[in-house]
Amino acid sequence: MSLRPRLRLPRRRSNALTLESFDQEWYIYTPDPDNPLVVAEFGDAVSLAMDLPDALPIRHEALLLLDEHRHITAILLDAPAEVGLFVGHCAPPGAEAPFCQTLCVVVHPSVPPGPPTNDDRHGYQALRRMHMAQGLQLMDVLLTDGDRVRSLAIGCDPDPIWFDEFPVVAA
Fold this sequence. Notes:
Number of helices: 4
Oligomer: single chain
Low-confidence stretches: 1-6
Strand content: 15-25%
Helix content: 10-25%
Largest sheet: 7 strands, mixed
Strand order of the largest sheet: 1-2-4-3-5-6-7
Shape: globular
């Protein structure tokens, strides 16, 4: 059990950059480098998934970009599919910090209990393969409705990253 304080997103949005691609508005949020957000364990990821809809202007999904120490370098909010799928090959403005891991949070109206659906499994595996082909590790796809969070990595992957011990590096 971790004795670290609960990971929280700041309630101000001054670090958010608004973009428009193909008539779709989306955002890039960059955390304060003096107050890094670290996703060291599954509980941190769940806390973020629960906080994102209230803290940032997310409508459907967020793609978190993380460095090798699991510090969040940027969060892409409702990015076009081309950016989300090929994030390792594009350079969104404001997201220039190096990253090698991703975590996706998808907001649903309702997240039912039980195992992932076949569509969820196929989607997770396809996104994971796309990220691997770009040299990125997809940590998880978390589905949330604000009250409940479901991990597709835990539900679909026989060896999810959350069960590996990860040494936390001081910022």
